[in-house]
Amino acid sequence: MTDLRIGVIGFGLRRSIARQAHRPGEGSRIVALCDPSERARSEAVTALGEGVRLVDDLADLFAENLDAVMVLTPDHLHHVHATASLEAGLATFCEKPLATRLEDADALLTTAQRTGSRLYVGHNMRHMPVIRQMKAIIDSGEIGRVRSVWCRHFVGTGGDFYFKDWHADRRYVNSLLLQKGAHDLDVIHWLAGGYTREVSGMGDLMVYGDITERRDNSDRLMWDWYSPNNWPPTAQTDLNPVVDVEDISLLTLRLDNGVLASYEQCHFTPDYWRNYTVIGDAGRIENIGDEGGDQIHVWTSRRSSARTPDRVEVIARGDGGHGGADASLAAEFVRFVREGGATDVSTVAAREAVATACLGVESIRTDGSTRRVPELPGATRAYFDAGQPGSR
Fold first, then answer.
1. What pTM was computed for the model?
2. Domain span at residue 288?
3. Which of 84, 203, 341, 348 is most buried by its number of CB atoms within 10 A?
4. Where is the GFO/IDH/MocA-like oxidoreductase domain (predicted)?
């Protein structure tokens, strides 16, 4: 089988996805990279080999006889670079979030449908063992019909990961409800089997806004400054010069199928994990930890208790990033480029996560009132739900 020729735009924090897609002789290889950073270019050669061509602009990248492009740039550039790739007629992997504004996300879907270029979004959590196992339990009917989903996201690395570079500046992320929350909102929708139509929220910059020691860290990357010893959060240093995104956010959601949901995100907890609770009309499930070897507890009788669920399911272990999810994500993208058709990752769901986050942010930053999340046009949703039929 001839390797697919893949180009990459951006070799920064999500470079691991490009590395997973680089499988020379096994079906796909990275042949060209566009990134203005000399450090990124040098590290790309080290990671991908001397055969990768380094180019200076998108025109040169698109001239490389590519089959696909992976957009791994900072969030505010996703829609810009993905649009250019789609317009060039190339199957496109767009890292999540699809965009930082709802109008840009909708425009991307319109562009993909008009050009017939395949669009895939990097929601790797749909491939994480903990989420797939919870989805299988729900689909089995064991807890009955889903009525409510709650997610608590404890971001113990928040000060290091999101408040020392461009992530702290709303011009580039809008809100961390997009950078981080797009994952969780997508999972809530997947587990609940519906999309948010009403959202309201509260949030604040409670901790990191008070820290005055700031530094321009554009000469460094996250792992240059990260340390588990950076604790407590109030003792953090070298924060980004601009810090204007919330470090704690709370959303309440009403989905189109009647499910009620909530999402809470905090960036100054000591622990780092996600806790999902799914309540059906015949039981409930909850993950205690989200890594391989952790557990999913299942309650289906009134004789159970906090210490004694009716049964416990161990979360499977996987190799590589996010419990093997990154490798599965890259493999699904490569298969999608070759064959098209349905994927576990949903472009419509990626748009709905952006829509929910954007309207939630609007609620948080104004009066906290409920916002109505607009639906996609029926024809657009049908096109992507059907696996982008007729795409190239």
1. 0.96
2. 126-324
3. 203
4. 131-286
